[in-house]
Amino acid sequence: MQKLSDAEILRLNFMSVCEKRLKSEGFQKIAGIDEAGRGPLAGPVVAAACILPDDALFEHLNDSKQLTPEEREILFAQITNNPNVVYGIGIIDEKTVDRVNILQATFLAMHKAVAALPIKPDYLLIDGSQLPIFDIPTEALVRGDSLSVSVAAASVLAKVTRDRLLEKLDADYPQYGFKQHKGYATQQHLDAILRHGPCPIHRKSFDPVKSYFSSREVQETFFP
Predict the structure, then answer these.
(1) DSSP for 139-180?
(2) 93 located within any domain
(3) Nearest CA to 86 among 60, 54, 52?
(4) Per residue in 49-75, pLDDT tens?
(5) Is residue 80 part of a domain?
(6) pLDDT digits (tens, 9 = 90+) for 129-140
(7) Are 162 and 194 part of one and the same domain?
(8) What's the rounded mean pLDDT across residues 19-28?
(9) Does 167 lie in the same domain as 196?
């Protein structure tokens, strides 16, 4: 493994302040939680929960949005291949998003991610300002994926997992370009919806897809 620079070690140590504070208070199994896919027009929302060992220093670990796809893939492999890292993934499909709304679907994904952990954490650090209800002490961290190593690791796991799912779905619906935009509202994606209409993995509760389904006849055609 390449030796980390002093600056990188300093940066990662700064991102470990939350975890170190909590461990000084007696908590040992601190899980960072983050999600990917709240904003897209199509596909699932994915959450990840991750507990890192004290000595884990992953070079370039950061908010997944600040990383290139290549950097995310490298970090995903390093995190998931480390035998001392504990993680869980939760996936909630687009139909549930439409049924319960995106915030509640995100909370469901977070619950599934925590339930998928092979050990029960004793503290949760969650990216954002809104918290789902857990029977575990929980703390909201605004921009937590830039401030906490465990939340940053969770953000990478969630983002890569979701991106891979959308790349697979691209094979089923190649006309929409999911491999490129991952379901987000790019001009390419909007043009494809206008040209082909929505497909079964589009979120019917999200505009402009929602507006497209204002016609009952069109809705029954695409979603019988």
Answers:
(1) EEETTHHHH-HHHHHHHHHHHHHHHHHHHHHHHHSGGG-HHH
(2) yes
(3) 52
(4) 999 999 888 999 998 999 999 999 999
(5) yes
(6) 999 999 999 999
(7) no
(8) 97
(9) no
